[in-house]
Specification:
Layout: E1 2-7, E2 21-29, H1 31-35, E3 42-49, E4 57-58, E5 73-81, E6 86-93, E7 96-102, E8 109-114, E9 124-134, E10 141-150, E11 159-167, E12 172-174, E13 180-181, E14 189-193, E15 204-209, E16 232-239, E17 242-249, E18 257-262, H2 266-269, E19 276-279, E20 285-293, E21 301-307, E22 313-319, E23 324-328, E24 344-348, E25 354-362, E26 365-370, E27 375-380, E28 389-394, E29 400-409
Antiparallel strand pairs: 1-2, 2-3, 3-4, 5-6, 6-7, 7-8, 9-10, 10-11, 11-12, 11-13, 14-15, 15-16, 16-17, 18-29, 19-28, 20-25, 20-29, 21-22, 21-28, 22-23, 23-24, 25-26, 26-27
Length: 414
C-alpha cells in the first residue's frame, strides 16, 4: 500500500535528464517478523521509474522509514508542500496518523501526530490522505484529512471519515474533532486522491475500494473479487457554519452515455400517489437521474426499487418520517455468504423542496449521489439475475416527479 509522486524537481536524484522520476512510497510487510511476534514488521520503502512507470527500481537504501515498534505502521500518502519546500508523508499508525517531512524522499523526520482524541476509534485507522481544497463560493482554503477505519463505519465495518482544518507543513489543526463520513454506504473504503493533476485542471479526484472487510474475502464472485468506485471529484462547501465534503461523479463519465432519455411519459411525471414502473433490460449498466419536488412537509417514504424476474429487489429512497436516506439490500439477491450482508444502510438527511437522486448501476453495485453529492451511499449486491425493472413509489399524491432520466452506459472493460 502507499502512493506515488512525480519528482519534477529531482529532489531524490533519480531523474534521467529531462525525464523526471516517478517515485512510489510503499509499505514493506515482513511476514517472518510478524510470525516471530515482533510489532516491527511494517516499514516504508521507495522505488522509482524513469520510463513513465513501465519499469521500477527499488532504492538500495530501503527502508527509508523504519518501524519504531508499532504493530500497524503503514499506508504512506506523500505530497509536495510548497510552503515549507518539503515532501510531506501522512502515515497510518494504529488509531492515529503521523506526519513526516523530507527534502529528498529518502530521509524522513517526524513532525507531528493527530487523532488520539479525534474522530471514530472503533477500529484501526488506515489509508490516510491530506490535501487543500478551496471553499466553494469564497476565497478561503481549508485542508482536508481522509482516514479510513475498520471496523467502526456508520453502517457496520469499513468506512472513511474526514476532518477539515489547517496545516502549516508541520501540524494539522482540525476545525472540529467529531467524525464525518465521506460515504455513508457499506462499500467505499480506503479511498485516496490522485497526485499530479495539472494546474490547469486543479480538481481533486478520488477513488475508493468498493467493498467492506466484513465480507470482502467471501463475496460470491469468480475470476475477480472486488472493484473500485467510479472516480469522483471532491469539493468543499460551508453550510450552517460547518464544512462539508461533497463528492460528485467525474464529468468524464458522461462520455460513457449511449444516449439519454426520460423513463416515463410526461403526463405520469406530474404527480405521484401510486407506483410507476418501467421494464428495461439495460438497467444493470446505467445512470439514473431523478428530481422529486417533495414540498416542505414531506412525512412519507419515497422509494426507487430495482427488481429482477426472480423477485430480488434493491431499494433506495428517502424517509421524511425519520429524515433518512436509505438503501435496502435485505432481498437484493445472494446474501448467504455473510450474516450481516442483508441489511438496511441509513444516513441522516433533511430534504426539502427539490430532492435530487443520481445513481450509477453496474451489475453488482449502486452508487447514489444525493443533492449533487452532499451525501453519498455506495452499495454492492449479488442478484442471481440482472435487475430489469424499475419502480418509483411514493404514497403522497402531491409529490411531483420533475425529472426521470435514463442513460445506458458503455462498458470500459477490455
Amino acid at each position: 500500500s502507499g502512493s506515488a509522486v512525480v519528482d519534477s524537481g529531482n529532489t531524490a536524484g533519480f531523474g534521467n535528464g529531462d525525464v523526471p522520476a516517478i517515485v512510489a512510497v510503499f509499505t514493506y510487510h515482513n511476514p517472518k517478523l510478524e510470525a516471530s511476534g515482533s510489532d516491527s514488521y511494517q516499514s516504508q520503502g521507495i522505488a522509482y521509474s524513469t520510463d513513465r512507470g513501465q519499469t521500477w527500481t527499488k532504492y538500495s537504501g530501503n527502508p527509508v522509514l523504519s518501524n519504531p515498534g508499532k504493530k500497524d505502521f503503514r499506508d504512506p500518502k506523500v505530497f509536495w508542500h510548497q510552503g515549507t519546500g518539503k515532501w510531506i508523508m501522512i502515515l497510518a499508525v494504529y488509531d492515529r496518523v503521523q506526519i513526516y517531512s523530507s527534502g529528498d524522499l529518502k530521509s524522513w523526520s517526524f513532525e507531528s501526530e493527530f487523532g488520539v482524541n479525534a474522530g471514530a476509534h472503533s477500529g484501526v485507522w488506515e489509508c490516510p490522505d491530506l490535501f487543500p481544497l478551496k471553499v466553494e463560493g469564497s476565497g478561503a482554503t481549508k485542508w482536508v484529512m481522509l482516514v479510513s477505519i475498520n471496523p467502526g463505519g456508520p453502517n457496520s465495518g469499513s468506512a472513511t471519515q474526514y476532518f477539515t482544518g489547517s496545516f502549516d507543513g508541520h501540524k494539522f489543526s482540525p476545525d472540529v474533532t467529531n467524525e464525518k463520513w465521506v460515504d455513508w454506504g457499506t462499500d467505499n473504503y480506503a479511498g485516496v486522491t490522485w497526485s499530479g493533476i495539472p494546474d490547469t485542471d486543479s480538481r481533486k479526484l478520488f477513488i475508493g475500494w468498493m467493498s467492506n472487510w466484513n465480507y470482502a474475502t467471501v463475496v460470491p464472485t469468480s475470476v475477480w473479487r472486488s472493484a473500485m468506485t467510479i472516480p469522483r471529484e471532491l469539493s468543499l462547501v460551508k453550510e450552517n457554519g460547518n464544512y462539508m465534503l461533497v463528492s460528485e461523479p467525474l464529468r468524464e463519465l458522461n462520455m460513457l452515455r449511449m444516449g439519454s432519455g426520460y423513463l416515463f411519459p410526461g403526463k405520469e411525471r406530474k404527480g405521484m400517489g401510486k407506483i410507476i414502473s418501467v421494464e428495461n433490460p439495460k438497467l444493470n449498466q446505467c445512470e439514473l437521474d431523478f428530481e422529486f419536488n417533495i414540498g416542505t412537509e414531506f412525512k412519507d417514504t419515497l422509494k426507487l426499487i430495482l427488481e429482477n424476474e426472480l423477485g430480488e429487489k434493491f431499494i433506495t429512497g428517502y424517509s421524511g418520517l425519520t429524515e433518512e436516506i436509505f438503501v435496502d439490500r435485505t432481498k437484493s439477491g445472494n446474501s448467504s455468504f455473510s450474516k450481516g450482508f442483508a441489511a438496511v444502510a441509513k444516513a441522516p438527511y433533511q430534504a426539502s423542496g427539490i430532492l435530487k437522486l443520481r445513481m450509477f448501476i453496474d451489475a453488482a453495485s449502486a452508487e447514489l449521489f444525493v443533492d449533487n453529492g452532499k451525501l453519498v451511499i455506495t452499495t454492492i449486491f449479488f442478484p442471481e439475475k440482472n435487475y430489469s425493472k424499475l419502480t418509483v413509489f411514493s404514497g403522497k399524491e402531491n409529490v411531483i416527479l420533475e425529472k426521470a432520466e435514463f442513460s445506458e452506459l458503455a462498458s470500459i472493460w477490455r
